[in-house]
Hints:
Blueprint: H1 2-50, H2 54-85, H3 90-114, H4 118-123, H5 129-142, H6 148-173, H7 179-211
Amino acid sequence: MGNSSSSHQVSAQDRAILDMKNQRDKLHQYQKRITAITDRETAVAKACLVRGDKSKALLALRRKKFQESLLAKTDAQLETLEQLTSNVEFALVQKDVVFGLQQGTSVLKQIHAEMGGIENVEKLMGESEDARAYQQEISDMLKGQISNQDEDEVEDELEALERQTRGVREDEEVAYPAAPTTELEVTKDRVRGQKVMAKASAREEDLAPAARPIAA
């Protein structure tokens, strides 16, 4: 009986370790794919700010923060579970491990749902009816999903991007003249003006004797 019980405990522990390994592998796959999406979301936020659409920029950054927090949450949870499964008295923590794995599976499904592809990211800055409906759907989904600290970090990132894009807009709006060409044109104009004045002065001197009355 004792051997049977021991075998059952080892089997449950091994199964938990295998489940965690599978979750960890999936998480690593998702991290690589979501990084490409979050990078594009940052680019979309910048593009929206350049054209003055702050609300869409904020939505893109909030979605990005939500996705990053899901990955971080799952990673931290798996680390905790790995520590629990290494416990010699696994039977005492088995329920916690099973519950944690169930939560991990649920969060991984959420992460998978977030990987809708780059085309969905493009909808965040779209103006079509379909794009607006998608934006509203994301906005509703994010309500209550982001912590106050994460919201503060999103605001900080938005301000940083605003400073960057403000510099881009100013560079585009201010037309800086090419110094060498401009100076050359000014010099040419000065010389041309001086020549005209010199010719006018010479013409006046030539006409001056003819204009004097002849003495009787």
